[in-house]
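Usage example:
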Amino acid sequence: MLSCADFLAEFGDYIDETASSDLRAHLEEHLRECKTCRVIVDSTRKTIDIVTESGCFTLPAESVDPIVSAVMARIRQRTT
Amino acid sequence: MSQSSTISNDPPGSYPQLIALYGFLPNLFRAQSAIPQAIEAEQQVINIVVVRQGRLSRSQKDAILNAVATVRSCDYCRALFGHSLAALPDRNSGLFDFSLKLAKHGPWVSESDVLILKHSGFDERAILEAIVTTGVGVMLCTLADGLRPRLDTELRSPASSELLNVPDPIDWPKTPGTHLGLPTDSTADSPAYAVLREQFGYVPNLYRLQSAVPELLDAEVRLLESVLFPEDGLNRVQKECVLLAISAANLNTYCATLHSQVLNILGVPLEESDRIVEDHRHSGISGTDRALLDETRKLASLPGRSNQRFETERLRTQGFTERQIVEAVVVSGLANFLNTLQAGIGATADFPPRKVFGPKDLYLFSDRSRPISDATFPEDPDSALVARVREGNIDVFEELVRRHSRRIFGTLAGLVGNIEDAHDATQEVFLKAFENIGRFQGRSKFSTWLTSIAINTGTDFLRQRKPSESLEEMQDDEGFRPRQVQKWADDPERLLAASQMNELVREAVLRLPEKYRIAVLLRDINQLSTEEAAAVLELSIPALKARVLRGRLMLRESLAPHFIRQDKTDA
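Running the assembly step on the lines above writes:
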């Protein structure tokens, strides 16, 4: 069975659901036995969800037009 | 399909409603002559949905159909539907925008989109008509994509395609729920319900929610009877697998759940369906069926999933007959039709879903695990615009700025941490892109190239900044191991107000060492695929994956104190 260190080195593809069926089987075998790695997988997934759904770096919709206008004005100024 | 092999000399009089509508039998339908009952059923759906007088005018329906063909870049259907968008008076309505979103970003349609239409004066029946008309447009475009009929001599070549502004969707609907409130019990004992009960064991919500329009329900059930239920060509399991795989590719939780259950009734274990949903290439299906799903999945309606063409020849070499190949395309059209209806109506799952799709699943079926020899570079959705800018059409660049400004700003805000700097840097990125667009050789997608410029620009901003202006970074410890191993709360998002959560995430991301921060920004905030992120950073795939994983684990470490479960009943 995989060690925890091996598991932590390999579980990125498992989280991204791109692990091959063989690797997935090895990782799941480890997970069945290791509560700590189960916690790490669960909390890493929650971390990704939190970060993905966070709007902390989102440009407000109303700010798109000013950026578009500013860029196009500068381009037109340079090309005329 | 080979254009000549599928076009028979069927007497056009067999399909009087299609002849009445188009004045002749279009090649799109002739190409399906191997399964005439499918043409008849499509004719009936088109007649009920498009021709018959309803709440919406014919002009409004034509606007919807043309919008669908335009956003799907389907020249055959643009010619078939027969109108230039510019000539359609209803093209600027909320209805038009709604259908564009449904056709291009179906899974993002929410109750609020429907509410906007209601506030504009459309009643629920009119909205249902708009949804089904969009579905018909998507279905016909799918058929044209797969069957590739020759343009009929009776049709004029379509004018050059118009740019339609379909904003990228922002918020994934978090709460699934029905968008329409039409009565659902008016046809409890109808023949259509009897067929559905016989085939599915119950009446799925998707059909129940349309029962207020019995003739529509009848036409849809007739389509199922003609396309899905017969086993003269492909067998029912193969057809249900196509429906399942396309529903998964379209991120349609409802339809994936429904067809997993049907497959289970047909003897396919739910776990096998789960594997098809995740990636059929790693499931236990035969090589022949894998080829069938490989090809039909290319016809999924959600853009960005695949830009490869349906390959008839590959299915022929796998032993599929001409009839089975036509069936594969027609079943794919049915799948996209049903997925579009569900996305618009918002039918809730009849069973607890085994997988609930989210926006990050968009890249689940990308070509990252294909062998190199089978890989082809996907078509760049920006390539036509880029070509026009390179030809000197400056104004077209505005559309590129509009498409990418939110994403580029997000990357820069996460990199430089300061909103004002991010605004300035965003402008710089687009100016640099414009000035250098002549050097862009199309070896990567335009968006990838743009992101590379953003990373370089943001990094330059950081280099010019005084150290005291940055948050203190976490140590880049090569021997990093998770230390926080207590279980987290089940629903951590609910523990903090949105503004607190945003601030917490912002600080945690900004404290990551730069190389991990950039990797996490590209994958989890910008939602680039692994390949795209690796290309932007000029890293190997394994190196990129290692950085993303390290960054995620460091973030998890930062966030853990806020989300660890308090009851401590379980480690």
